[in-house]
Amino acid sequence: MNWKKAILHLGVLSAISTATLVAQQAGTISGSVSDTKGTGVPHSTIVLRNETTNAVTKISGDDGGHFSSPVLPEGNYTIEASAPGFALGTKKDVSVSANAPAQVTMALKLGSVTDQVTVEANNSNSVAAQYAPMDGLLEARSARTEVNSSFIQNFSSPVADYTEVMQMTPGVFSINSNGVGLGDAKMFFRGFSDGLYDITFDGIPWNDTNTPSHHSWAFFPSQWLGGVDFDRSPGTASTVGPTPFGGSVNLLSKEMLDVRNIRGGVSYGSFNTILYDGSFESGNFGGETKRNNLQIDVHKMTSDGFQTLNNQSRTAGSLKYQLKFSDTKMLTGFAGVIRLNANTPNIKGPTTAQVAQFGYNYLLQNTDPTQQNYQKYNTYYVPTDFEYVGYKQQLGKGWSLDTKPYTYSYYNAQYYATQPKAGPINTKNCAPVKGVRSCAVDKLNSYRKYGEITSLSKVSKYGVFRTGMWYEWAATNRYQTPSDPLTHTDDVLPNFHEKFWTNSYQPYAEFEYHATPALTLTAGMKWAHYTQDLKQYADNGKTVGDLGGAPYTRHSAGYNSYLPSVDANYRIKSNWSVYGQFSTGSVIPPSSVFDVTGAVVSTLPKPTGAKSYQAGTVIKLRRATLNGDYYYINFDNVYTSSPDPNNPSATSYSQAGSTTAKGIEAEGNLYLYKGLSLYANGTAGSARYSSQSVGGVVNPNYDRWVASTPGNTEGLGLTYQQKYLDFGIFNKRVGSMWNDGGKGSTVINQYVPIDAFNMTNLFFNVTMRKGSFFDQSKLRLSFNNLFDQRGITSLTPALTGPTYKADPGDTLGLLAGRSVTVSFVIGLSPHRE
Asked: Is residue 503 exposed (0-12), middle (13-18) or buried (19+ Cβ within 10 Å)?
């Protein structure tokens, strides 16, 4: 009887326990996560926290932002929703019971402007947008184009640099006469040349210290790029950098993969170009939480170059690491190192006579050591490194912290020959006479920078407040010393030698006011402060002179700019927006301000400023996207120098008038059928000198065109993208434009006519996609300048006069000839879940 009673008691207890458990676990929570415009946020992380027991349940949303929890105990819950690029969303006191399952809707606000590109790319419900090689942004507050990772990986050459990646964007053109990625290419748009716009990498601005120019071949090859956000405006108050003047080219590192992958590949192409590349993706790892992720890339590239004897060699490696401490705390680190060697001379190209005699691709030779273009007299060695550590944390109550200390360096050691006026290069002509007749130059431009970008943001029901500061310190050493190329013996006195130290500060504040669910208004102010302390050494008279017998002179300069911005974005529909913007930018003066006799400057120049007005629209339909804009920009020209009337031995600087740039831009993508899309963009505009007088004197260049500003450009691309196959053919036409004349010309601007030219590139890729042991294995075929177009892209005239006259001594920039590259990559994903 005892055992029968025991069984009965156990049965009763089991029934009671089951009934209690059912009563406790009788409810669910379901709902959706969207942005403020109602677009679902895919794959968001939802944390359900029982407010009584603190028990946590974590789930993920689907592609459309919807989620549903497992059965939960009855009670009140706090729900936290998070996604990359958004501020944390929280709802408290959500009641769960058996009779009333909870339904919630979470609307997340953007927590960081820099994350906007990734956010919108993931959220788009437009098939045309998802297949577009580049596209606009519905959240845009200015003219912006996003170049996605698919275009970089499938529709650009494996040896490309960032200028080639940007080539197809509206209004942009970039020329590298030695072939794709095989030289220091420069980029132009809207009348702005290199040095008149910011370039950033993961939000960090980088540039030379003596003048804010960039080096496409020495930093950030395409192997390191995951996308580009191209903002053709000075940006908002939170856009930091030395030249937020004409726009910002924001390079983005690659996203981290969730699964492990190992890739190794080799590419071989025209001009004996060879690229070896190996990469490793760790995927998420580290115990049960798997909060770590590691990405490594190493590659080696060598090439003879399209131009004769213009050899190139690049060895590079990058590492990116992420540690996710929690859903609200993340650490990111990046390091990249490049070693570059080249034979590129310090000339802009061959002359017309040399091309006629030796061929279209002529540049250097190794047969006549008496000439400047003798290969052994021209060498480049450029090592660089770039590192940062980024930390992001959501502090609670809507506050978020984002801080990113960084450092990078550039060391350009160049040696190049110069043709003596007395005749050929020989022992007699190159012997130093008063230290100025050597026939080569030993050149160094080196700097190391340390900086930090810190921002705080507060998300509230009214909008997003942002404040922060960019600070940077740099030390620079530069010289150019005459040298004998026959013996590599430097002269005692340099052409110039300077060391200087710079400090840059840019504190800012802006508020993004969400006036209605459809209307966003943003206004802000930035203070740009820049100081420079210089130490210039006595030289042979080409720059500062003998300084009265002193070994060097010291001086300093400080510059300030107040840069306001205001913009609006109105969402007419969830897939259609319009925007308007007024923004201001500036360019800091270079160190050459003090490159005058005695280094005596009585009146410093002011920072060159720009005022930009833009309005545009972005629409994303199911099968078509379209965005267009109108811009009007008034910006200052480079200042002029003159003797100080009160001190003839001193130099005074004054503003040199202004320029007006205006035009229209448009781009769109049409999804045709089953992965087939047609992409097109076009621009029409002008950039002209708009000051009728400068310094009380009639301006001879009034209403003339700014150099390297085509009146129109057109881009056209046809792509086919399916699971394993990517095919694309792209054509870029650059309309006619002008180059400037020499210093002796009566009229400097709008002097040399440059005819229109175009290039066609074709790409074919077969890739093993996710789900395969050989994930990311690829066969890649690239054609650049498919039809082998020949054309003059720039010209420096040999003669001066009131009008341009062609001469055999004209120096030419030319389109590189056709190149073909074949790549084979083996990818392995040995541990897939």
From this structure: middle
> Which of the four pLDDT bands, split at 50, 70 and 90, describes residue 89?
confident
Are residues 318 and 775 in contact, defined by beta-carbon separation less than 8 angstroms? Answer: no
Residue with tokens 């042979």: 540
Query: In terms of Cα–Cα distance, which of 379, 378, 403, 375 is closest to 391?
Result: 403
Q: Where are the alpha helices (DSSP H) in 172-232?
A: none
Q: Answer whether residue 235 is part of any domain.
A: no
Residue 713 belongs to some domain of the structure: yes
Half-sphere exposure of 507 (CA within 13 A, CB side): 0
266-300 b/e with 16+ CB inside 10 Å = b?
Answer: ebebbbebebebbbebbbbeeeeeebbbbbebbbe
Indicate whether 23 pLDDT > 50.
no
pTM recorded for the entire structure: 0.87
Q: What are phi and psi of 223, to 5 degrees?
A: -60, -20
Contact between 402 and 392 under an 8 Å Cβ cutoff? The reply is yes
Rounded mean pLDDT of 395-408? 93
How high is the pLDDT of residue 680?
98
Mark out the alpha helices in 271-421 (DSSP H runs).
352-358
Amino acid, single-letter form, for residue 782 = S
Question: Does the structure show a pLDDT above 50 at 118?
Answer: no
Place of tokens 């087939």: 676
Report whether pLDDT(772) > 80: no
Which pLDDT band holds residue 637 (cuts at 50, 70, 90)?
confident
Pairwise CA distance, residues 224 & 336, whole Å:
9
Q: Please tell me the predicted confidence (pLDDT) of residue 54.
A: 76
Structure-block tokens of residue 627: 């965005």
Structural domains in the chain (count): 2
> CA 437 → CA 39, 368, 375, 432, 443, distances in Å?
69, 20, 21, 5, 16
Nearest to 305 by CA among 710, 787, 831, 814: 814
Coil/strand/helix, residue 152: helix
Cβ atoms 432, 471 nearer than 8 A:
no
The mean predicted confidence, pLDDT, of the chain is 89
Pairing of strands 725-734, 712-721: antiparallel
In a domain, 463, yes or no: yes
Residue 227 falls within a domain, yes or no?
no
Q: How many CB atoms lie within 10 A of CB 413?
A: 14
- Which helix (H) or strand (E) element contains residue 570? strand 552-573
pLDDT at 436: 63
Give the CA dihedral 496, 186, 417, 380, nearest 10 degrees: 90
**Which helix (H) or strand (E) is 17 found in, with range?**
helix 2-24
Q: Is 711 left (phi over 0), alpha (psi -120 to 50) or beta?
A: alpha
Query: Which residue range is the domain that position 757 belongs to?
Result: 253-828
Average pLDDT of the residues in 69-75 = 85
**Between β-strands 102-108 and 29-35, what pairing exists: parallel, antiparallel or unpaired?**
parallel
Last residue of a domain, one of 108, 129, 154: 108
- List the structure tokens of 777: 């294995």
- The CATH number for 51's domain is 2.60.40.1120
The β-bridge partners of 76 are 95
Q: Among residues 108, 142, 176, which one ends one of the domains?
A: 108
pLDDT in tens, 356-400: 999 999 999 999 999 999 999 999 999 999 999 999 998 888 899
CA distances in angstroms from 278 to 118, 224, 338, 770, 826, listed in the order given:
26, 12, 15, 19, 10
